[in-house]
Amino acid sequence: MIPVWAIWLIISGVFLLLEIFTVSFLMFWPGIGAIFAFITSLITPNIGIQIGVFTISTIILIVFTKPLTKKFFKTKDSSMNNNAIIGKKGTVIKPIKNSQTKGQVKVDGELWSAIISDDEKPLKEGDSIVVEKIDGVKLQVKKA
User: Fold this and answer.
1) Which of the residues 10, 19, 87, 144 has an alpha carbon 20 to 30 A from that of 136?
2) Residue 78's pLDDT band (boundaries 50, 70, 90)?
């Protein structure tokens, strides 16, 4: 028969292995809780206490440390906040002759295709611009 302490180590290993494949940072906490239960199993043979330690420590870890990990391990959001770029300043990299011609601008270190509105004068390389709106993957800009 497998000793109880070994079962807790196996449970911990399973949770930590699952964490590697899910990268949600949620399976990590039960893995640590199982380690606490393993330590408890070395102190007392009472399985009820061990399960209690596992459950309580896992809940405490999730409640108190999950917000901290979100703060330190921010993931880049794949969706773009379109409104965040509106109003930002940039520079013309490739001239924009009219509203039908795409040029290129650099805003916050990123290159964008850009157009101007019908009433806007052509923009030449090096001109400073302000982003008016975003249309798909191109920006509508005006001279700053």
Assistant:
1) 144
2) very low
